[in-house]
Amino acid sequence: MAHRWGFTHHATFTGAFRARYRMTPTEYRNDHAAQRQPAAQASHPAAQNGDARHS
After folding, report:
1. pLDDT average per 10 residues of sequence, the chain (55 residues)
2. pTM, two decimal places
3. Cα–Cα distances in Å, from 27 out to 15, 16, 23, 33?
């Protein structure tokens, strides 16, 4: 991800990210994964009929 945004070193990207968002990219991803999870489950066909099994 760091290279995609023009950073040549991961540590430089993490430092810039932390300065902007006051958390590391991993902390951000973990905090926001919980917000994305319900939407992903709701769109899963098994979740719509109450069946928790994966096909």
Report:
1. 84 94 94 70 56 53
2. 0.55
3. 13, 14, 6, 10
